Amino acid sequence: MRKKILVIDDQEDLLELTSRLLQSSGYDVITLANGTNALDLIKKELPHLVLMDMIMPEKDGGQICQEMKSDAAIHHIPVILTTGQMMDKSEYSDEKSIGADDYLMKPFEIDDLLSKIRNLLAK
């Protein structure tokens, strides 16, 4: 069975590129260009993993992650947050405290992303 990954990012070129790379790596991919309806889609589709941008207009990845992790129906779904902003160790701790399972700095290497996805899906 192919694993389903939801990718949420407001940068459409990155969303499309990430989607194509994950599909070519054997994953089924669902995309969303903003976080507004993310929770509804997550509950409907029940992806195996969510990969989302931390900073988005309207509703950011941190808010979505916190809401996911407090919802018994979907709290088990691993979340990888991505950001283009440099993070120090205290900010990384903040990411962990909101429930993110991992994070990646943009631009990221596809091998790093795939390694993180494999590790989280193997748990």
Which key terms come to mind for this protein?
123 residues, alpha/beta, Rossmann fold, five-stranded parallel β-sheet, 5 helices, 5 strands, globular
Structure overview:
- With 123 residues, the protein is of the alpha/beta class.
- The protein has a single domain (4-122), classed as Rossmann fold, CATH 3.40.50.2300.
- The protein is built from 5 helices and 5 strands.
- The chain has helices at residues 12-24, 38-45, 61-69, 89-97, 110-122; strands spanning 4-8, 28-32, 49-53, 79-83, 102-105.
- The protein has a 5-stranded parallel beta sheet, with helices on both faces.
- It is globular.
- The protein starts with a strand and ends with a helix.
- 28% of the residues are buried.
